[in-house]
Amino acid sequence: MADSYGDYDLEYTGIRKTGETYSACAPAKLNITLEIGALDSDTKLHRISSVMQAITLHDRITLRKVDAGHEGIEGFSISDNIVEKSIEELSRQSGKELHCRIGICKSIPIAAGMGGGSSDAAAALRLANRAYGLEMGMDGLERVARKIGNDISFLLHGGRAVVEGAESHSIRAIDFPILYYLIARPMMELSTREMYALHDKTGKSFTELASELCPDTGRLLRDMKNSNPVESGVTGKGPTAFAGYGTYAECKKAADSIRWFKGEWFIERPVGPLSL
Question: What number is the average pLDDT over the span 84-113?
Fold first, then answer.
């Protein structure tokens, strides 16, 4: 289990300042496990219980302070709107005008169940908190995050955690094994809304549903499990499948066994707790 994260982790967990520009990685996440509870009648949200792990696959977020009227986001991204909302909510809760220009360089696949947009928003909150000296701490930033989207709270923390709840999530950090993750994303998008509707109708897990709706996902899981991973599954709603191995050689061997796969694939490592 990890009690220190090694030098490689510092690149992914820290915040850098170069001149007037602040930058940070926005790591993707894997749902190592995901259990979906009943729909809450008041909030109309499902309670979930999930073990989440931040990984080295990441977007790069930059922030620099600007004069009023020059705010904006550079770099096209589907996450633009959630990032803007996060900065606006941070401004409201801090009581300060946060005029800034944010850059987003995407590497996390869109609509892959890996939390790319939420991680971009979490990184923007971390950067603004540092750049403007807000000193809100994790509790304060979580209050902002809960107004925008639940995954943002975990992606402020990084590392591995048990995440539970519906309208707001509790986050309990836990140790994690240092693994090499083989991650394969089929070129198909699954709707979160439709996946929850199918779960409510059938009682099936997202892993079962993704495997049925996207045959590549099911085949990937079968092939990955044949290579005896430490852990494996489908992240989020899918269709992305993953498996974790104790050594790079084992991971590469597993990757070689799925040469039939025509989508995107990555070999990544876990990321520890993130800096504020």
Answer: 95
Catalytic residue numbers, as ranges: 29, 151
pLDDT band at 84, cuts 50/70/90? Answer: very high
Regarding whether 235 and 147 lie in a shared domain, the answer is no
Residue numbers of the domain that contains 262: 180-268
In whole numbers, what is the pLDDT of the chain averaged over residues? 92
Contacts for 100 with CB less than 8 Å, ≥ 6 apart? 63, 64, 65, 66, 71, 87, 128, 131
Half-sphere exposure of 231 (CA within 13 A, CB side): 17
Q: Give 216's contacts (C-beta < 8 A, 6+ positions apart).
A: 186, 188, 239, 261, 263
Confidence at residue 2, expressed as pLDDT on a 0 to 100 scale: 40
- Token digits of residue 126: 């971390």
| 229 lies in the same domain as 117 | no
Is 118 part of any domain? yes
- What is the DSSP secondary structure assignment for residue 109, as one 8-state letter? P
Please state, as a whole number, how many other Cβ atoms lie within 10 Å of the Cβ of residue 161: 23
